Amino acid sequence: MNKEIAVLGAGSWGTALSMVLVENGHQVIIWGRREDLVQEINEQHTNQRYLPNVRLPEQLKATSSLSEAVAGKDVVVFVVPSHSMRTIAKQVKKWIGDHALVVHATKGFEVGTGMRMSQVLKEELSEPFETRIAALSGPSHAEEVAQKCPTTVVVASSHSEVAEEVQGIFMNHYFRVYTNSDLIGVEVGGSLKNIIALAAGLGDGLGIGDNAKAALMTRGLAEIARLGTAMGAKPLTFVGLAGVGDLVVTCTSQHSRNWRAGYMISQGKKLDQVLHEMGMVVEGVQTTRTAYSLAMRHHVEMPITEQLYAVLFENKDPEQAVEDLMRRGRTSEWEEIIRSW
Q1: Where in the chain are the domains?
Q2: Residue 118 assigned ligand-binding role
Q3: Which CATH architecture does the domain made up of 192-340 adopt?
Q4: Which CATH superfamily is domain 4-181 in?
Q5: Catalytic (active site) residue 193
Q6: Residue 84 vs residue 340, higher pLDDT
Q7: Residue environment code for 220-253, b if the CB has 16+ CB neighbours within 10 A, otherwise e
Q8: pTM
């Protein structure tokens, strides 16, 4: 059954997901802050800043009015940056119908509280949405989804019927969707992999080699699992699409904003300069700050995160950070694995 769907956020990922939903026969309206972008989508059927050289379907409509986007819709998909999630949720609450499904596709934590995005949505939307929220995550570069490259993701909800309904709304011949009941694990995995991707880009820029990158990704997965399980996630989630799957694609592709940001920092650019030049949200930056705090809160050891935090926020030399990681005390891999899982 076709749905009326609002997609909040006209960046690359929100636009790509809107294309999937239109492909599936749904009536989709995408909300963006900027009037010029809304006009471009409606009249030129492009989004050159975020998805250059991609033709958008003419059925996709855009608006800068939150009320027009959300009122009466069957599904509301939040694809806004993590730092905007609470503000947008507060604004749209009065227009979301009690029957609506709420989906978010944002990979990050709220700065300050360390809350996952579903927690923010539940807190702001309250009843009846506490049981109608799902998270969409997994290895999925927007650029490839927009080109209809085969992509596989996961939708998580604490209520299986919600996950299955969202699965049916998004899934098609090039966009395969699995369900997962571990909402915590899917959100944590999707968020923390951005930290490792930043570190991977930094390492590639320093020329540390493939051996080191393989170790970084492997030990990075251990850190993700260690903190995730401490927060209540199921360990097996991290060997799935929202864990190792998303980690691999984000650490190895130049489509990744986080990889690019890390690479630019390795070339001597300061963080503020990198973020200004990229002109897009790099979720891994604030996620590093939040994960650093969460690790202390949960008494979890995260050496890669600690070193990246020092590089980003304490002006530590990246080469020194790599050396300090390599000089850590001797230990058994099995002991490390057991502590992680």
Answers
A1: 4-181, 192-340
A2: no
A3: Orthogonal Bundle (1.10)
A4: NAD(P)-binding Rossmann-like Domain (3.40.50.720)
A5: yes
A6: 84
A7: bbbbbbbbbbebebeeebbebbbbbbbbebbbeb
A8: 0.94
Partners of residue 61 on adjacent β-strands: 29
- Run of H or E including 156: strand 151-156
Catalytic residue, chosen from 193, 213, 234, 316, is 193
257 is in an annotated binding site: yes
C-alpha angle 54-56-61 in degrees, rounded to nearest 5? 150
pLDDT tens digits, one per residue of 329-340: 777 766 665 565
Find the radius of gyration of the CA atoms of the chain: 20
Q: What are phi and psi of 265, to 5 degrees?
A: -65, -35
> Is 317 marked as binding a ligand?
no
The pLDDT value recorded for residue 115 is 97
Q: Long-range contacts of range 311-315, CB-CB < 8 Å, 24 or more positions apart?
A: 311/202, 311/265, 312/198, 312/265, 312/271, 312/285, 312/288, 313/271, 313/288, 313/289
Whether 329 has a binding-site annotation, put simply, is no
pLDDT digit string, tens, across residues 24-75: 999 999 999 999 999 999 999 999 999 999 999 999 999 999 999 999 999 9
